[in-house]
Amino acid sequence: MRWVGRAGGMWLLVAVWTAGCATEPEPTPAPSPAQRESPAEAPPELPPIAAAPVKGPPLAAIAQRVAAHAKKAAAGERKVLSRLLGVDKAPETVLKGLYKARKLLHYGRDGRLSQGGHDVLALLADLSRHGVDRRPYNLAKLDAATAAVVAAFAAEKAAIVKLGPDLDGARVASKVADWARGGAAGEAVLAAAGGDKLSGAARKALSDGLDRVLAATDATRAAIWAADVAISRAAVRYVVDFTLARPAHPFDYTSPNTVRKLAESEAEALSARFAGKTDKIAAVLRAAWPQHPQYKKLLRAVDRYQKLVDDGGWDELPALPRKKLEKGAKGPWIVALRKRLAAEGYKVELEGERYDSALVDEVVRFQDRHQLADDGSIGRGTLRELNVSAEQRVRQLKLALTRWRSALARDAEGYFVHVNIAAQRVKIWDKGKVLREHRVIVGKDNDDIDYDKRIKGKINRTKMFKAKMKRITLAPRWYPTPRVVDLELGPALAKNPGYFEKHGYVSEMQADGTERVYQRSGPSNLLGVVKFQFPNKHAIYMHDTPGKGIFRRARRAYSHGCIRLHHPKKLAYLLLKRDRGWKKKKIDKIIEEREEKIVGLRTHIWVYIDYISASVEKNDVVYFWSDIYAYDQAYFTGQLPVEETEEYKAASLRGL
Fold first, then answer.
1. Looking at residue 228, what is its pLDDT?
2. Which residues contact 346 (CB under 8 A, 6 or more apart)?
3. What is the predicted pLDDT for the residue at 42?
4. Could you tell me where the beta strands, DSSP code E, fall in 463-585?
């Protein structure tokens, strides 16, 4: 054998056979000892082999393939979006309006959440703080959709890595992926990323792996849209919960099933909120919060009390050592009281078994904040409030937030009057500031009967409604209802024939033959010296009363439904000076003349009557008001809506 030459760049070793029998090869002689000891003759040294250049497709061809795929992917994207919008029928109409332009609202094409998207997710994460039920939002599914975007981009990166170690090729492949997802497009974009400088081998690797990369971008594109729509669906539900749902309203209660349908039934109103603001979704959500200053104050109160819960709250106090503890009492129970008050932030010394003056002052503060007689003595009522847990206080504050979201005064602005039945207080607001505050007496919580309407139950409770104050009556007459005449005045007159004359009542016969009874103006008139009228179907108004002593009581539910006002003349001075420019002297003179004068207001004033059992007052002090009508209890025990009255039959009157 010998080396005879090259072929195709490779050296060929050729075996040359000598003459002889054509069928039998010549035997190879055995090597001599000398041959065995000497090395074999080495082949001649070969020159280096030059690899043939690889020619990949031109960049233009790659760009054409990407462009074709991107066009197809955009068409497929419309189908994906249509499917996503039809997942939940309730918000479908609103969502279609949001995505009418088929643009991502929260994500970029690069898979990154916008700042607005981050803000929306932060608001959704904060739902529990507002007392909103998180379960309908399926936040775990939303988290999974977000995680799917991350996973899709990881798969996309893996497809790019498989193209090979060429970093320039990877950069161009990243631009290919971005283009395929709907980002910056065109051959020029690829060239600017270094595509016009790629070697043939790099272009070939890119071309060979292009389908794999483009398939990965399809999955990424779908994942981004799924996450984006999931956020928008949650945003729509957020606005429903904050503006339309009434899960704690005693009467206008909306069940969970009804709330789910509100997005569709109120689609027009919801769409109007989002109109022109698809780039400011988080702002739309924040705007859905009640605008009344109480709302944000209560949110801060929730934070404070939630921290108390996180820090361990407080222990329940044992039974009182005697029926009532007064100043000067001693014993270990007082030490437990000190620890209980300190846990909630009251300024007390932790040591000491004596109920001293400093501790009494803090107990008085506690009693005032819980609508108790603030005399410093500790009885069953004070102990009951002391033993409400920190967790329950958080629930009460969250319920107050929930009630504000459906309150009649939730977005009240300018000049208005707000009555809080639970607090038994009225405030006059002007441009976000309280001008005056008055104690009021509200309707009693007893069982009673209305014979004319043939109903029985809690008929004397003050109703929740809004109306415009249109007139103020000075030195008013009182015209009792036929029910009051029959049930109260009639029996009093029968018992004492001089009752009407003694108390200033007049009985007049009308032209139609009916009797009209009224009480003359004066100090004994049950309406007092002034009446504030805001016509409504409940025949409720605010008025003075000769029974001033009741205003000293902490809890004041004693009327037949109307609102009795403490210091009503001061309110009349304020309103009539603003509306008519009248001075105090003129108003007092009219009252002293004891002749009824009706003053029509030139500018009507909104009056809102709500029921909210917690509030934040001066210096950010939190107050927990009495649940006088048990509306809170009905909420916490799942007994909404409340049924206050029912029809009666003669046989069912026994016991009332």
1. 97
2. 362, 365, 366
3. 56
4. 466-474, 505-509, 515-519, 530-533, 542-543, 557-559, 563-565
The residues near 319 (Cβ < 8 Å, ≥ 6 apart) are 383
Residues 15 and 80 in one domain: no
The pair phi, psi for residue 38, each rounded to 5°, is -95, 145
The mean pLDDT of 328-355, rounded to a whole number, is 97
Question: What is the H or E stretch that residue 329 is in?
Answer: none
Q: How confident is the model at residue 90 (pLDDT cuts 50, 70, 90)?
A: low
Instruction: Say yes or no to pLDDT of 317 above 80.
Output: yes
Report the DSSP pairing between strands 433-443 and 557-559: parallel
In a domain, 51, yes or no: no
Cα distance between residue 604 and residue 513, in whole Å: 36
The domain of 120 spans 59-287
With CA atoms as reference, report the closest residue to 560 among 544, 533, 539.
539
Structure tokens at 169: 């090729």
Beta strand segments in 87-196, E: none
pLDDT for 12 beyond 50 = no
CB 525 within 8 A of CB 477: yes
Residue 529 in tokens: 């010296």
Amino acid at 332: P
Contact 182, 67 (CB under 8 A): no
Are the beta carbons of 193 and 206 closer than 8 angstroms?
Answer: no
Cα 129 to Cα 616: distance, rounded to the nearest angstrom:
16
pLDDT of residue 57: 93
In terms of Cα–Cα distance, which of 322, 351, 347 is closest to 334?
351
Q: Rounded distance, CA 648 to CA 320, Å?
A: 44
Q: What is the pLDDT of residue 14?
A: 32
70/513: higher pLDDT:
70
Q: Given a cut of 90, is residue 482 above it in pLDDT? A: no
Pairing of strands 563-565, 542-543: parallel
Calculate ∠ Cα 239-243-248, nearest 5°.
115
Q: Which of 388, 422, 452 is the last residue of a domain?
A: 388
Q: Are 125 and 196 in contact (CB under 8 A)?
A: no
In a domain, 127, yes or no: yes
Query: What average pLDDT does this structure show over 568-593?
Result: 97
- Are 161 and 256 within one domain? yes
Q: What is the percent of the chain with per-residue pLDDT over 90, rounded to a whole number?
A: 79
Lowest mean pLDDT among 35-44, 137-146, 153-162, 576-585: 35-44
Q: In the 3-class helix/strand/coil scheme, how is 206-245 assigned residue by residue?
A: HHHHHHHHHHHHHHHHHHHHHHHHHHHHHHHHHHHHHHCC
By mean pLDDT, which of 21-35, 237-251, 336-350 is the weakest?
Answer: 21-35
Q: Are residues 357 and 411 in the same domain?
A: no
On whether the CB atoms of residues 457 and 647 are closer than 8 A, the answer is no
Residues 539 and 605 in one domain: yes
Q: Give the C-alpha separation, 596 to 476, whole Å.
A: 5
Q: What pLDDT, on the 0 to 100 scale, is given for residue 91?
A: 79
* 260 and 357 housed in the same domain: no
Q: What angle do CA 366, 371, 372 make, to 5 degrees?
A: 70
* pLDDT value of position 175: 96
The CATH number covering residue 341 comes to 1.10.101.10
pLDDT for position 656: 47
- Residues 115 and 184 placed together within one structural domain of the fold: yes
Whether 256 and 374 share a structural domain: no
